[in-house]
Amino acid sequence: METERFDTIVIGAGQAGLVTGYHLRNTGRSFVILDGNDRIGDNWRQRYDSLKLFTPTYGTFLEGMRFPKGAATATKDQFADYLETYATRFELPVRTGVRVDGVRREGDAYVVTAGAARYEAANVIVASGAHRDKMVPAFAKDLDPAIVQLHSSEYRNPSQLRDGPVLVVGVGNSGGDISLEVAATHPTLLSGIESGHIPVDIDGWIARQVAFRVIRFGGTRVLTRRTPMGRRAIAKSSHKGDPLVRVKPKQLAAAGIERVARTVGARGGRPVLEDDRVLDDVTNIVWCIGFRHDLSWIDLPIFGEDGAPVHDRGVATTEPGLYFVGLPFQFSLASDVIPGVSRDARYVVQQLDRRTRAGTAAAMAVA
Q1: For 243-289, what is each residue's pLDDT tens digit?
Q2: What is the pLDDT of residue 365?
Q3: Model-level pTM?
């Protein structure tokens, strides 16, 4: 098997991987960015059709390139195109259609595999995004096969659904968006408990020009792992879902959406709620209960008791040369979203460059 060698391999060409590439490019190091999608930005294009970003366009950008002027808020396809343009503008060496399935160490180098392809590097930066594997409860397999079941990552628009009631499970932002959309054409039930909501209209002028700036400052500069307030906020956020941002509870009520208890099981092929109610007439279920950040393909002793990688601001504690960008709460509450990822990428590349230069200087001194 032929092996390609680089100084650094970046895994993932979403916003985290691309802005990492931008900073690596400025160091002059040889590197490649590997991504499993067929096209840069597909991780956004493949989401539901009506998705719009929460961030106003003036704050929707990666370091080095502003978002094009136009609408106040970008659609998911517009942001996907921005990522593609970003990679082209900075001539980032992205290889699409390369799905990494293994990272291990052999001697002084890391070996990265993607099917039959093999790569070696002194450094690996995992920027595969905050989420990789969809979460669906084990009892989903016990539901009647006639019920259409879609995860939020598979849902595109209401045309995928059968006639009849829709059960949307999960009261996060995807659940709020999707339930409000399908309620226009289907009787809709929304299952679960919300974790609060942003009280202002985020598409209004005040929210875009004032509230966003305050929230961005708090999420990137105040609520970090360096501050007691930040550590408390991060610990609290780790154990509950995100608050509703664009959709408000009063909008759900006005749309005629029935709020029901958590969905906890199946009985006779039908979904069962926590209050023991059986939903006999549901013909569609959309699971909006999130994703699992699966890093099991990394064959290195870097994981703590909670299964998460042990790191300091994205620098792996026990594996020199291994880094992360885009992890939830990597440094701040905003680390896995657009406003926070550029700073984390810059820091990680600085640490990588500093470590490598120190090693080179030490080797020259010994020689």
Answers
A1: 899 999 999 999 999 999 999 999 999 999 999 999 999 999 999 99
A2: 61
A3: 0.92
**C-alpha–C-alpha distance, residues 289 and 266, integer Å:** 17
Structural tokens at position 366: 């010994």
Sorted by where each begins, the domain ranges of the chain are 3-132+293-366, 135-198+243-287
Q: Which fold has domain 135-198+243-287?
A: FAD/NAD(P)-binding domain (3.50.50)
CB under 8 Å to 78, separation ≥6 — which residues? 70, 71
313 vs 91, 317, 328, 334, 341, CA distance in Å? Answer: 27, 10, 11, 13, 12
Report yes or no: 269 and 144 within 8 Å, Cβ to Cβ: yes
The Cα–Cα gap between 339 and 223 comes to 13
Q: How far, in Å, are 40, 43, 74 from residue 82 at the CA level?
A: 10, 13, 10
CATH superfamily assigned to domain 3-132+293-366: FAD/NAD(P)-binding domain (3.50.50.60)
Q: pLDDT tens across 67-98, in order?
A: 998 888 999 999 999 999 999 999 999 999 99
> Where is pLDDT greater, at 30 or 366?
30
**209 token code pair:** 């020009």
**What six digits make up the tokens of 359?**
């090693």
How many angstroms separate the Cα of 358 from the Cα of each of 27, 55, 313, 355? 14, 39, 19, 5
Average pLDDT over residues 115-142: 90
